UniProtKB/TrEMBL annotation:
Name under which the protein is recorded: Metal-binding protein
Pfam families: DUF1636
Species per Swiss-Prot/TrEMBL record: Celeribacter marinus
Amino acid sequence: MTTWITICETCKRDDWAARGMEHTDGELLAAEIETRAGAAGVKTRRVACTMGCERACNIIVQGEDETGTAKMGYSLGKFDGTAEDAAAIVEYAALHAASPTGQVPFRTWPQGVKGHFVSRHLPLPTESDT
């Protein structure tokens, strides 16, 4: 079973320029997630854009089960790019990894991801579904 966190490294919060940032908010969030993900058994990748600019910082959690069947995936956004955000994202991704379908009961969600879900991505149908 593999769960991935895809992180938009080009995300910039609205006040990015005013804060005089050297790195994007997405780069900062990616670095924080990457330092935690390995210990949680979750993989990461950075991408140049997830097209959710109005709600930066954006990530996607997706994966597959032990047979290679895709699980439910999720887009999340409106993070500040903090260490606390990263910890909650990685904790949620570890719960996703442990779930056979990718669905995680709301009562077990880390507080730091609540209110950040943007969309759910249904797995593509398989031949047996058609």
